Amino acid sequence: MNETSITELRGVGPELAKKYATVGIHSLEDLLTYYPRRYEDYSVITPLGSLKPGQVSLKAQIKQVTGRYVRRGMHITEAIASDKTGSVRLVWFNQAYRAGSIKAGAEYYISGLFELRRQRFSIASPSIELVSDFPMNTARIIPIYRETKGLSSAQIRKSVRALLDSEPVLPETLPAWVAKEAKLIDQRPAYEAIHFPESMKQLAQAKERLGYEEVFELSLASLLNKDELLREKALSIPFDEHLAKQFVSHLPFTLTDAQKKVVWRIYLDMQKTTPMNRLVEGDVGSGKTVVATMAALMALKQGFQVAFMAPTELLARQHAETIAGLLKPLGFADRLALLVGGLKAQDKHDTHHLITSGQAQFIVGTHALIQEKVDMHNLGLVVIDEQHRFGVAQRKKLQIKAGHMPHVLSMTATPIPRSLALTLYGELDISIMDSKPANRKPIVTKVISPNSRAQLYAKLDEQIEQGRQVFIVCPLITDSAVNEQLLSVESVYDTLRKGPFKHRRIGLLHGKLKSGPKNEVMEAFAAHKLDMIVSTTVVEVGVDVPNATVMVIEGAERFGLAQIHQLRGRVGRSNYQGYCYLVMSDSKAPTRRLRAVESSQDGFALADLDLEIRGPGAIYGTLQHGQLDLRVATLTDTKLIARARTAAQEFIDKGENLLHYKQLNNRVQQLRTVTNLN
Ligand code: ADP
Ligand code: MG
User: CATH number of the domain that 73 lies in?
Assistant: First the structure.
């Protein structure tokens, strides 16, 4: 089942298989677990005589069907449907085949939006199918899937139906006692009901069953990882109070309470002979870099190496500079090395040599650190910035020859509600930095209609005139359609440079640039050789240019709240007032989501709201580099999560052997190796 190709399914040829591949469906199991995004309830049939505007579902006879071409080659199919109580007009545009495929005189289920169009009530482009005992697209609760060009929900329904009808062998994953204790419905009816629910109640039961299963598997994977890690040896790194005090005395600020608390936890972890595996969650600007540097300090003092990994080259370079500044007063700065993909061959060679010889002790870099074969034989601590989970495999790669595991510290600004973090990252110890440096002023945040661009530009120019700098972030690199003109970095850059900001120095930055030009632009901006940077979200994580005070986000409604909050965190990093302008792509009333960013500066609260309004995908979209997305479990359903976690713990405490559960074991082993660092 899990390996069987989708082409084995009746009705799925190579063409359709290609389309399925674009949404990640390759096997039958992929299709089975391609859960609907949402559902539309067409289960209540309305007599035609009592139709009211809105989504409706009908059972009616088709009286007549006509197809004709009207002006400019547009085709219209019209039909009249009636029952004993009345009749209604149905229309389809440019679907010429409809006229031939709908049979006059036959009885159909019809579902769609009943509304007034050009002074006539009608249903445009309804779904329609012959009356039967098992309607798929009408007259029931209808699953709506994530679609793609040429792959409609109707097509997916057809394939899923064919799959379920083929009586696939579904190997049970949950131990019987777990399913029984949790009072879950069986797997088979759960799959049926998540795709084709008969009622909302049945759908809820299906979600509970499948969600429970997911959380149980994830929890088991992380508990096993944790167990394994606790059996590994690490080098104990003692705490040197004098050194810590010395470091703090050179800082231009005092540490926040949260920073002190977290650093102390880390010091306790590092003194143990089992490896630290801690995740520090702290909102943007909460000062995580200093915390990591303080952890590194103790390792350096003992003569161990430290690897500091950043998600982008840009950030790695910036961190290297910041850290050099922090370590300079203590005389450790000359032990720093930078290792990124974009180094010239000779530089790379030299850096490798410095690392293997142990002269370089603090190595800042990107994934090049684990990808390139560079021998950090004396590695005591790994810091991972803006990532959440460091996989078992990566850790193994870094295992020191003597058989010691390095301590690992991960840091993230993505606010993950605690219950969820426990499930997704259960093998980690989590510390939350819950206070920010005191000098931070709230960032003035405003939603802007595209009509007010002129006023906005005047404000930006005022800031630039005062010596400040501006970020403009766009959702796209190039224009993909005419109406998206204002959303691409390239066209915005062009327009601003030739028009309103002719007299200013503007840079262009996006992910497709080579690393050389990219660094030049970023460095120029940091050195205030540019007034403005037009960019994609590559500036999102971590970039620190305190003189920048304005963040403009074009097409703001397209971004997740967590992402907007991250972007906003790029400004307001100094004593200057920070501003964030959310420019909408049309002049409709701002959504509740954007209003929320205007009024709240709290990343956790915004993440919760996005979870509520857009569902887990919205937040976890940013995390889904691995397969760590929960597909069914409503992540806000903390009770379900807690129950499933407890059951996983019970499974281990009972001394159950995973090998006795073949399917469960397969899934759990797969999950254990998932990481978002690939
Ligand atoms: P993040 O948590 O987003 O990674 P950074 O570590 O980049 O935040 O810190 C943001 C800015 O705040 C930096 O310029 C840093 O020097 C400054 N900073 C860090 N800790 C403090 C503090 N306790 N008081 C004042 N400023 C601080
Ligand atoms: Mg940071």
Answer: 2.40.50.140
Share of the chain above pLDDT 90, in %: 43
* β-bridge pairing 469-473 and 532-535: parallel
Q: How much distance in Å is there from the Cα of 530 to the middle of ligand 2? A: 23
How far, in Å, from the CA of 49 to the mean position of ligand 2? 63
Calculate mean pLDDT across residues 326-333. 90
The residue among 433, 456, 482 that closes a domain is: 433
Place of tokens 């790695």: 316
Query: pLDDT for 10-63, tens place per residue?
Result: 889 999 999 999 888 999 988 998 888 888 888 888 999 988 998 899 999 999
Last residue of a domain, one of 561, 583, 600: 600
Q: Which pLDDT does position 440 carry in this prediction?
A: 74
- Output the domain CATH number for residue 335: 3.40.50.300
Instruction: Give the distance (Å) from ligand 1 centre to CA of residue 320.
Output: 15
Let me know if residue 253 belongs to a domain: yes
236 within domain boundaries: no
8 Å CB contact between 16 and 22: no
Tell me, yes or no, whether 453 and 541 share the same domain: yes
pLDDT of residue 677: 37
Let me know whether 414 and 525 are in one domain.
Answer: no
In a domain, 154, yes or no: no
> Per-residue pLDDT tens for 116-156?
888 888 999 898 888 887 788 887 898 988 888 888 888 99
Please check whether residues 587 and 458 belong to one and the same domain: yes
Relative to the CA of 439, which ligand 1 atom is closest?
25
- Residues contacting ligand 1 via CB (< 6 Å): 253, 255-256, 259, 282, 284-290, 413, 437, 439, 542, 544, 546, 573
In a shared domain, residues 425 and 494:
no
Which atom of ligand 1 lies at the shortest distance from residue 569's CA? Answer: 3
| Separation CA 428–CA 417 (nearest Å) | 14
Centre of ligand 2 from the C-alpha of residue 412, in Å: 8
Instruction: List, for residues 419-448, the tens digit of each pLDDT value.
Output: 667 776 777 888 988 888 877 788 999 999
Q: Is 441 helix (H, G, I), strand (E, B) or coil?
A: coil
Name the residue range of residue 263's domain: 241-433
Largest CA distance in the chain: 91
Is the residue at 518 inside a domain? yes
Residues 410 and 463 in one domain: no
Q: Which helix (H) or strand (E) holds 321?
A: helix 313-327
CA pair distance 132, 108, nearest whole angstrom: 9
Nearest alpha-carbon partner for 556 in 445, 668, 428: 445
pTM to 2 decimals? 0.72
Residue 112 carries which side chain, given as an amino acid letter? G
Who contacts 621 (Cβ-Cβ below 8 Å, separation ≥6)? Answer: 560
Residues 336, 362 contacting (CB under 8 angstroms): yes
Those residues whose beta carbon sits under 5 angstroms from the ion ligand 2 are: 542
Ligand 1 center from residue 441 Cα (angstroms): 14
Question: Residue 611 pLDDT more than 60?
Answer: yes
Specify whether 375 is located in the same domain as 488. no
Is the distance from CB of 193 to CB of 202 less than 8 angstroms?
A: yes
> What's the pLDDT at 326?
94
3-class DSSP state of 542? coil
Give the residue whose CA is nearest to atom 13 of ligand 1.
Answer: 287
Of the listed ligands, the closest to the CA of 286 is 1
Q: Are residues 286 and 307 in the same domain?
A: yes
Residues 329 and 411 in one domain: yes
Q: In ligand 1, which atom is closest to the CA atom of 433?
A: 2
The number of the ligand 1 atom at minimal distance from the alpha carbon of 286 is 2
Number of domains in the chain: 3
Q: What is the 3-state secondary structure (H, E, C) of 63-118?
A: EEEEEEECHHHCEEEEEEEEECCEEEEEEEECCCHHHHHCCCCCEEEEEEEEEEEC
Q: Which atom of ligand 1 is nearest to the CA of 282?
A: 2
